[in-house]
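Allow me, if you will, to draw on your knowledge of protein folds for a short while. I have a record of one protein: its chain in single-letter code and its fold written as discrete structure tokens. Could you please explain, in whatever detail you think fit, how the structure tokens follow from the sequence? The record follows directly beneath this note:
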Amino acid sequence: MADPTVVELANQMAEECLAVQRETGQERLFMEVAAVLGASSQTMEEAFVTAIRTRLAAAQGRDFMAKALAAHRAKES
């Protein structure tokens, strides 16, 4: 398991990176950031990519549930 400081930094960077991606429309910016991090620290790169992927997966899961609920409610109407 990674050092808690590494995980905390990776989580902060993931939040910042996703905010920049939303504002700029650069959907794969996180891959570029990961490459920069990996040049200095493979541990940081892995923690960052994990943080990004879990956030993207959670967003997809929330979107799926929202669509399923909307479809269910539409059938009830």
In short: Residues 4-76 form one domain. Residues 58 and 64 are 10 Å apart (CA to CA). The longest helix spans residues 42-76. The chain has one domain: 4-76.
